[in-house]
């Protein structure tokens, strides 16, 4: 389907290419073109380019056949032990085996320096062995980033503080061991990778996560481990707490902002849809703390530190000043730098620092040079941002044009003549996705059947007041009307501009922006198994954007990239190119290399653009820095690097690299290992939601290791070394990958392609259990005798509770901990908040008056096995079980309670499912479903389960649709059925709430907060995505909940509420306050409406 569309586009594209050429005054040359065929690699389209060649390239008539690679022109390649593929320069390189250490990727062999560094790391820097990782799983997993490159670090060190970095860098210098810093690893250009030592500041507990908001929020000081989105949430909370008039946010707004960290945002000079150039880190930076390679620190906010630095580092300072003087005296070079940074540019260093400041202000220059330096000049340990206002009034319009040139001209008009906030361009391929979206069709009906080269602009406008917003919208309308550009998705059916009105309702403009955000995942999800999704990021002066877009579309077509999407921040001339690419065969490698070389010529030479607008140079365009910047500026960059890091210790090979083929080396394989995870694009967006991120692996890392295991298992005739690596990885993965996965699926919530890594892990557990027949048989016996099991557990809890009272906490903890270890985590570890056995369920609850009066109010109540077994903990003032509280609520609201048949033996099946006992889980699930169908008279009555995760499990396993709309967990039931029947009053000042991950996945976070707020003045959300309890897993692997709940925030409250008894136990254990079911609070805070009214009258 897409191929057919591509050929239609091809015909239209031919017209546009030549019209673009005519506009540019370029001659059209013969077919075939300079890049029309692949050459023997390396050397295909060698980067000596020149404007003439590039022009010729772009003049190639469109719809020429995709590049066919001749077998005789295939490159030499090599695959390393990690599966990474490289294109090689020569036979000599192919057979080269390094004998001595060279500071080049693949040649950093251990000649004793790593051992010496490790020794000093422990003895001098004091980094404990528990934070040094050299095993085959952790190095591989932690080494993975979002780029399509693979380098495997020799060692990963989880760093904890600036102080530690100050000790480590001099050791690296002493032993000549290169180091690379790692924040969230969402970089796309290969700058966060190394085959040497990776210093990881992310997922190291609460380290590097401090902040201070200043005044009204117009400045904020942050550490590099905070996620960008978190910083904005901190600013939002600061505004609402201090009742400040203006909402501020940080300027940089990469689309990865909810995953990437300050360290990466600063070091890549990231930006996004609204920030443009003027609000990126370079322009909104106030101050910075920098650790240099010798371990010294400069705090630019501290006059004493500045003065000391000027003295102690006079050589560096004088060097920077000399370079600045040279640049400022060279008008041509200075103008080039100004021109390049007028648009988005992250290729090379931030040379604008050398022209934007007076030469007597070297600190200001050094501070700005750090921005976008990708960890090659120093470590950023703290940043102070001048924040920018987040105006409250917004509106967006989706304006369609019959061709992409007109759309880009529209962007240029808006940039030159208005103060518009964001303009995003969609090409025809992107529009095709809109055509299949019902909400989009409702809002922009004429996109259906748009012309083959149609394009659109998504325009956003913001204002401090409604009037301000209206004035800005009018300004945009006036400019577009005056432009004389055609509007409408079809040239033959022109539309007035008014057809694309600004939408003020957030529900409407959310549709536009959701489609925009969904464009990257679409390619990611639709690509063929075994290929990777590539995301290129180019920019050019906005008046050339149309031409560049057409040239790139033509290029993709000729090279057979039929799935390429082009879209991006048109206001800044910034275009994202998303397409799939395999690195499995020499043909695929050649196609990529040839296309990429042409891409660089089109962007850098023909359109004087940036090869990287936002994503950073990395290894990806390092060989093309000179093509983009010219020799003089590139030499300046090398000089800069030598001033800051003369020994090439800091992330060598990134930004500047002498290897002309570094961009086609160490390419990451993407084996099609399992349909559950093949779509993974390794973006890392899921990582911050994962409860095991601080102790073992994240979802991305689980998938990466799983795929690597698959790749190695697929190798026929493995060598002894390969077998040994496979065995070691498989063994470590059991604990790191499988045992410590909570299988809660919270990763899916942040995954752009909706992967639930927990499903993969459950499948692995299930496969294992299928082999372990005895265990499966035992599980089935437990399932068949569940009422006895539940009764026994209830009694056991009381026995343990008595033991706690008699013996005290210490011996019980010691005994249970020993048992836990001895049984391979089968016996749960005891904690002081372990519940007592729950009092028995009242099987004959009183018939409420309302029911007796004949009002048909019935509810089917299924107390989860966990609430039938577990009561409150020993130290809680509450002694009643959850079911007693819920029965009280039903009674107050006049509900007659119906229990499902066979309640004492019922279970949703989760405890079996999470362990991989699929058959037992299915059996219990279907038994319960049948009982609920009967009790609810096929869904006539609402069904309430008092434990959110169990309700989610029941919902996910339904086979009969009759119950689909009748199932409620407590909070949803309260919202739908009790608000009109009960009078609420606020009975607490401050409470903490933890919303279980299952509730978050069901989308009831807001409802949870609303119900809690009806019972208390101030409600603090713990903000922990998942506590890691996962049924009883957190009791059997207490380190999992320990790691997750170190981020728990109870804001000084003395009571906490949730809707899962096991999670509550764990939350209590890690906060020191009692967490209990929200129904306890609601029961205390409510009375029947009638009674309340009578009370008021009296
Ligand atoms: C799907 C997707 C969409 C994206 N969209 C955008 C976008 O819209 N705009 C955009 O600009 N980018 C985008 N990116 C790229 C990436 O998310 C950003 O560049 C991000 O800011 C990187 O941050 P990080 O925390 O992941 O850094 P990392 O990848 O961990 O590191 C980035 C670089 O900074 C260095 N570094 C990290 N911490 C420090 C420190 N404390 N001191 C010195 N050096 C350090 C590293 O060595 C590395 O060179 C996207 C990525 C993905 C996967
Ligand atoms: S699982 Fe999803 S979010 Fe995680 S790395 Fe893969 S694609 Fe990204
Ligand atoms: S299921 Fe949960 S624990 Fe497992 S990878 Fe996903 S978020 Fe992490």
UniProtKB/TrEMBL annotation:
> Which cell locations does it reside in?
Mitochondrion
* FAD-binding PCMH-type domain segment(s): 149-390
Matching Pfam families: FAD-oxidase_C (PF02913), FAD_binding_4 (PF01565), Fer4_8 (PF13183)
Q: What class of enzyme is it?
A: oxidoreductase
**Could you tell me which residue ranges the 4Fe-4S ferredoxin-type domain spans?**
669-700
> Which prosthetic group or cofactor does it need?
FAD
- Give the superkingdom in one word: Eukaryota
**InterPro entries attached here?**
4Fe4S_Fe-S-bd, 4Fe4S_Fe_S_CS, FAD-bd_oxidored_4_C, FAD-bd_PCMH, FAD-bd_PCMH-like_sf, FAD-bd_PCMH_sub1, FAD-bd_PCMH_sub2, FAD-linked_Oxase-like_C
Classification via SUPFAM superfamilies: alpha-helical ferredoxin, FAD-binding/transporter-associated domain-like, FAD-linked oxidases, C-terminal domain
Q: What is its EC number?
A: 1.1.2.4
- The answer to whether keyword Membrane applies is no
Mitochondrion: present as a keyword of the record?
A: yes
Sorted UniProt keywords: FAD, Flavoprotein, Mitochondrion, Oxidoreductase, Transit peptide
Main localisation = mitochondrion
What GO biological process terms are annotated to this protein in UniProt? lactate catabolic process
GO function terms (MF aspect): D-lactate dehydrogenase (cytochrome) activity; D-lactate dehydrogenase (NAD+) activity; FAD binding; iron-sulfur cluster binding
Cellular component, GO annotation: mitochondrion
Which family would the database say this protein is a member of? Belongs to the FAD-binding oxidoreductase/transferase type 4 family.
Tell me the protein's name. Answer: D-lactate dehydrogenase (cytochrome)
This chain's source organism reads: Chlorella variabilis (Green alga)
Q: What is the lineage of its organism?
A: Eukaryota, Viridiplantae, Chlorophyta, core chlorophytes, Trebouxiophyceae
């Amino acid at each position: 389907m897409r191929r057919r569309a591509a050929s239609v586009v091809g015909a239209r594209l031919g017209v546009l290419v030549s019209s673009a050429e005519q506009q540019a005054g370029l001659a059209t040359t013969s077919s075939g073109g300079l890049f029309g065929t692949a050459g023997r690699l390396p050397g295909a389209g060698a980067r000596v380019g020149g404007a003439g060649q590039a022009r010729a390239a772009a003049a190639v008539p469109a719809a020429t056949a995709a590049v066919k690679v001749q077998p005789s022109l295939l490159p030499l390649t090599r695959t390393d032990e990690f599966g990474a593929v490289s294109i090689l320069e020569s036979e000599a390189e192919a057979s080269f085996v390094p004998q001595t250490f060279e500071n080049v990727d693949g040649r950093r062999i251990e000649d004793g320096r790593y051992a010496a560094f490790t020794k000093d790391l422990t003895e001098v820097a004091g980094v404990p062995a528990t934070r040094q990782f050299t095993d085959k799983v952790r190095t591989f997993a932690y080494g993975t980033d979002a780029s399509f490159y693979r380098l495997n670090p020799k060692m990963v060190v989880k760093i904890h503080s600036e102080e530690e970095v100050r000790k480590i860098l001099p050791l690296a210098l002493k032993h000549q061991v290169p180091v690379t810093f790692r924040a969230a690893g969402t970089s796309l250009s290969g700058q966060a990778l190394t085959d040497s030592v990776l210093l990881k500041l992310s997922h190291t507990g609460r380290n590097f996560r401090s902040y201070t908001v200043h005044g009204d929020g117009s400045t904020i000081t942050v550490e590099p481990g905070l996620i960008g989105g978190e910083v904005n949430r901190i600013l939002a909370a600061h505004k609402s707490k201090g009742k400040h008039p203006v909402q501020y946010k940080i300027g940089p707004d990469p689309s990865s902002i909810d995953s990437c960290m300050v360290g990466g945002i600063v070091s890549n000079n990231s930006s996004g849809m609204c920030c443009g150039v003027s609000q990126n880190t370079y322009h909104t930076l106030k101050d910075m703390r920098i650790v240099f390679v010798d371990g010294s620190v400069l705090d630019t906010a501290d006059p004493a530190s500045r003065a000391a630095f000027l003295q102690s580092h006079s050589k560096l300072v004088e060097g920077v000043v000399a370079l600045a003087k040279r640049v400022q005296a060279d008008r041509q070079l200075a103008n080039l730098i100004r021109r390049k940074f007028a648009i988005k540019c992250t290729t090379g260093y931030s040379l604008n620092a050398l022209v934007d400041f007076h030469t007597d202000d070297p600190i200001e220059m050094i501070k700005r040079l750090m921005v976008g330096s990708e960890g090659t000049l120093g470590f950023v340990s703290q940043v102070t941002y001048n924040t920018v206002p987040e105006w409250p009034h917004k509106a967006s319009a989706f304006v369609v044009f019959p061709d992409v040139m007109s759309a880009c001209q529209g962007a240029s008009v808006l940039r030159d003549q208005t103060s518009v906030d964001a303009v995003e361009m969609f090409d025809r391929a992107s529009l095709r996705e809109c055509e299949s979206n019902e909400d989009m069709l409702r809002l922009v009906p004429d996109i259906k059947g748009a012309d083959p080269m149609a394009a659109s602009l998504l325009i956003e406008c913001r204002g401090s007041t409604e009037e301000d917003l209206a004035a800005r919208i009018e300004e945009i309308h006036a400019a577009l009307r005056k432009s004389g550009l055609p509007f409408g998705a079809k040239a033959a059916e022109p539309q007035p501009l008014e057809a694309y009105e600004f939408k003020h309702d957030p529900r409407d403009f959310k549709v536009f922006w959701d489609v925009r955000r969904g464009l990257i995942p679409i390619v990611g999800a639709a690509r063929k198994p075994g290929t990777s999704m590539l995301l290129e990021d180019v920019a050019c002066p906005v008046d050339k954007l149309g031409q560049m877009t057409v040239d790139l579309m033509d290029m993709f077509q000729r090279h057979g990239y039929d799935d390429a999407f082009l879209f991006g921040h048109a206001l800044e001339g910034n275009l994202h190119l998303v397409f799939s690419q395999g690195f499995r065969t020499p043909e695929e490698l050649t196609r990529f290399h040839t296309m990429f070389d042409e891409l660089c010529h089109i962007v850098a030479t023909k359109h004087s653009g940036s090869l990287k607008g936002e994503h950073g140079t990395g290894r990806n365009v390092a060989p093309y820095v000179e093509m983009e910047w010219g020799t003089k500026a590139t030499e300046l960059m090398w000089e800069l690097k030598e001033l800051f890091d003369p020994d090439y210790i800091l992330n060598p090979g990134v930004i500047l690299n002498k290897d002309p083929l570094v961009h086609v080396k160490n390419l990451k394989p993407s084996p099609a290992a399992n349909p559950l995870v093949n779509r993974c694009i390794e973006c890392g967006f899921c990582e911050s939601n994962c409860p095991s991120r601080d102790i073992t692996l994240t979802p991305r890392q689980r998938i990466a290791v799983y795929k690597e295991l698959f790749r190695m298992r697929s190798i026929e005739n493995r060598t002894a070394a390969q077998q040994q690596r496979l065995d070691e990885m498989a063994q470590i993965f059991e604990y790191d990958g499988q045992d410590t996965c909570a299988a809660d699926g919270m990763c899916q919530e942040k995954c752009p392609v909706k992967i639930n890594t927990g499903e993969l892990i459950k499948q692995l557990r299930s496969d294992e259990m299928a082999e372990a027949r005895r265990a499966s048989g035992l599980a089935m016996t437990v399932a068949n005798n569940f009422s006895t099991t539940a009764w026994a557990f209830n009694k056991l809890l009381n026995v343990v509770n008595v033991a706690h009272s008699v013996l005290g906490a210490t011996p019980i903890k010691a005994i249970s901990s020993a048992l836990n270890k001895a049984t391979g985590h089968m016996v749960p570890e005891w904690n002081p908040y372990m519940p007592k056995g729950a009092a028995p369920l009242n099987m004959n609850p009183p018939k409420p008056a309302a029911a007796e009066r004949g009002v048909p109010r019935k509810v089917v109540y299924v107390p989860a096995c966990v609430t039938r077994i577990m009561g409150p903990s020993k130290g809680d003032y509450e002694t009643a079980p959850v079911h007693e509280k819920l029965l009280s609520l039903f009674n107050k609201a006049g509900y007659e309670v119906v229990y499902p048949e066979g309640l004492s033996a019922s279970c949703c099946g989760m405890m079996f499912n999470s362990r991989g006992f699929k058959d037992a889980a299915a059996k219990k699930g279907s038994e319960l479903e049948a009982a609920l169908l009967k009790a609810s008279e096929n869904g006539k009555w609402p069904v309430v389960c008092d434990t959110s995760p169990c309700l989610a499990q029941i919902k996910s396993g339904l086979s009969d649709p009759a119950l689909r709309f009748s199932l409620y967990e407590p909070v949803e039931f309260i919202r739908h059925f009790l608000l009109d029947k009960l009078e609420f009053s606020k009975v607490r000042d401050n409470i903490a709430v933890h919303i279980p991950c299952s509730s978050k996945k069901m989308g009831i976070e807001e409802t949870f907060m609303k119900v809690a707020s009806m019972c208390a003045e101030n409600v603090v959300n713990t903000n922990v995505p998942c506590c890691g309890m996962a049924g009883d897993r957190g009791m059997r692997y207490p380190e999992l909940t320990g790691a997750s709940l170190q981020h728990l925030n109870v804001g000084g409250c003395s009571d906490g509420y949730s809707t899962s008894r096991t999670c509550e136990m764990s939350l209590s254990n890690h906060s020191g306050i009692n967490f209990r079911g929200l129904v306890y609070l609601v029961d205390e805070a409510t009375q029947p409406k009638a009674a309340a009214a009578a009370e008021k009258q009296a």
